Amino acid sequence: MNTPLFHRVTVIGPGLIGSSILRRIQKDRSIATHTVAYDNNPDVCKHVQELQIADEVCFDPKTAVENADCVILSIPVGAMEEVTKQIVPYMKKGAILTDTGSTKASVIAAIEPHLTPDIVFVPAHPMAGTEFSGPDAGFDTLFENRWCLITPIPSTTQEATDKIIAFWKAMGSNTRILSIQHHDKVCAIVSHLPHLIAFTICNTADSLEEETRSEVLDYAASGFRDFTRVASSDPTMWRDVFINNREAILEMLARFTEDAQAMAKAIRWKDEEYITETIQKGRRIRKSLIENKQVQ
Ligand SMILES: NC(=O)c1ccc[n+]([C@@H]2O[C@H](COP(=O)([O-])OP(=O)(O)OC[C@H]3O[C@@H](n4cnc5c(N)ncnc54)[C@H](O)[C@@H]3O)[C@@H](O)[C@H]2O)c1
Ligand SMILES: O=C(O)C(=O)C[C@]1(C(=O)O)C=C[C@@H](O)C=C1
User: Fold this and answer.
1) What is the predicted pLDDT for the residue at 219?
2) Which of 114, 49, 46 is nearest to 80 (CA)?
3) Where are the transmembrane segments (predicted)?
4) Cα(182)–Cα(214) distance, rounded to whole angstroms?
5) What is the dihedral of CA 262, 268, 274, 277, to 10 degrees?
6) What pTM was estimated for this model as a whole?
């Protein structure tokens, strides 16, 4: 066997994303020879032991990171600073610290001040997931044919970036380097705003049902049902994403509101051309996602 990419990889937060990483490494030992998992919820640690998806489970952050070549933070973005402060003093010289957080400017601001010169941080974000969370939700093909976006900071070395690119390629992903601001704007429109709309539309339908005492949700047809899938995502994760990427999200929400108002005007004035063109654009986007294999 060729030399593995890493000897010891530690996953902090073996939930949906972290446990999918662990499961993939179990299938492909050229990624790492030894995996360690740590979670601040002891029940999650015990369950990861039962699932047997990590070679070692630690119940404290210090032991979990001590000899790791690569530490992956797969925890809610609002917890990144606290955990970085807990682990950096115990990390091995020359080790790589990386993350899977859905926001990048906030995660970098949380981690960068606590780095020491001998730890290299490579910010990363796999654009793959589901509405489920926790260690039971993970699976080894989650990242296949998906993008992993990497947003290096000035102190990130090329060598460490190359290793994290190789890591995500071994996970089955395509990788792309993006600037931090560009990442946060793109994710605000393709991921964060759709979740905001899904949570809001479910709340609107629910309060309408309460107000009118009618059976709005009983007749929820498939259009609404698709929103409920997205709206069933984890509250802690999404609370943290909204607060930590608020500028980009509010900017995209303002643009969306303008476009929704333009559509309302077109409907009011029976502007058939505008309405048809808007719907056709949606169909074109769906078609191109299918062609690019980003939709099953
Ligand atoms: N869910 C998705 O679709 C998705 C996709 C891409 C990236 N992400 C990002 O990846 C990260 C993990 O998301 P997930 O969906 O796997 O979440 P998850 O809820 O499934 O798992 C997160 C785990 O982190 C643990 N945790 C929380 N705070 C901790 C702390 N202080 N110390 C140690 N462990 C802690 C939790 O107990 C939990 O087990 C988040 O930053 C999220 O934004 C999520
Ligand atoms: O597939 C889903 O259901 C997801 O919510 C995954 C999704 C997304 O919005 O596409 C969610 C958050 C991420 O940071 C990346 C991917």
Assistant:
1) 80
2) 114
3) none
4) 44
5) 100
6) 0.96
Q: pLDDT tens digits, residue range 142-163?
A: 999 999 999 999 999 999 999 9
What is the residue type of 139?
F
Alpha helices in 154-271 (DSSP H): 158-170, 180-187, 193-212, 222-231, 235-244, 246-268
Q: Tell me if ipTM is over 0.95.
A: yes
Query: What is residue 279's predicted lDDT score, i.e. its pLDDT?
Result: 97
- Give all strands of the β-sheet with 32-38 in edge-to-edge order: 56-58, 32-38, 6-12, 70-73, 96-99, 120-122
∠ CA 165-97-23, rounded to 5°: 65
Using the mean position of ligand 2's atoms as its centre, give its distance from the Cα of residue 129 in Å.
5
Domain edges within the chain: 6-178, 182-291
At the top level of CATH, the class of 182-291 is: mainly alpha
Q: Does domain 6-178 have CATH number 1.10.10.10?
A: no
| Side-chain half-sphere CA neighbours of 91 within 13 A | 26
- Fill in the amino acid letter for 269: W
Q: Which of 141, 191, 195, 230 to mutate to test the pocket of ligand 2 (most atoms within 8 A of CB)?
A: 191
Mean pLDDT of 43-55: 98
Q: If you take atom 21 of ligand 1, which residue's CA is the nearest one? A: 15
Minimum CA distance residue for ligand 1 atom 42? 101
Q: Provide the token pair at 184.
A: 């946060």
From 24, 229, 62, select the one nearest 140 (Cα to Cα): 24
User: Is pLDDT at 275 greater than 90 in this prediction?
Assistant: yes
Among 83, 65, 96, smallest CA distance to 165 is for 96
Neighbours of 47 (CB within 10 A): 18
| Average pLDDT estimate for 282-287 | 94
Residue 29, Cα to own-chain centre: how many angstroms?
Answer: 24
The percent of residues above 90 in pLDDT, for the chain, comes to 90
Whether 138 lines ligand 1, by a CB cut-off of 6 Å, is no
